[in-house]
């Protein structure tokens, strides 16, 4: 069984709160139990990334509304953390010296889209995709609703809430950032008149 964790944090790469501790520990226990467990996270400009070497294993483009962005997938040597960590590098949006800001909608949507775009190229799709907090909350929706991710229609997803205070709300006028889906189902994204990634998951 292959489990993919998609997360904005992973200790010791990038830590703001308890999310990093969970994502930095759970894959180790799963691998010890015979589960092939991996992490996909953003590639930040921080002390950890500056201190380690990465291999570029994939490059492509993603579409965010009407904008086309280049992205890379970088891999950290498994020996560093005892499990595979893959980094999504979207130079124009993600490669910053901080994890969170007040303008993260585009950043984390690009991260999720790039992650799914890359995963669709795998010969053997993951058995489970485990998403963590609102930064990855639209991934389960896109797996089920977006035409370009039809390959994941039958792939189970797990969503863990680590911090319910932050839910990633954004206005419906940004719904076009999400890849094409049946707009009759837009209500699945709505909570109190806004798009709420935490609730949508």
TrEMBL record:
InterPro entries: Starch_synth_cat_dom. One of its GO terms (molecular function) is alpha-1,4-glucan glucosyltransferase (ADP-glucose donor) activity. Signal peptide: none annotated. It comes from the Bacteria. Residues 3-201 form the Starch synthase catalytic domain. Pfam families: Glyco_transf_5. Keywords: Glycosyltransferase, Transferase. It is an enzyme of class 2 (transferase). Its EC number is 2.4.1.21. Gene3D superfamilies: Glycogen Phosphorylase B. It catalyses: [(1->4)-alpha-D-glucosyl](n) + ADP-alpha-D-glucose = [(1->4)-alpha-D-glucosyl](n+1) + ADP + H(+). This is starch synthase. It comes from Seonamhaeicola marinus.
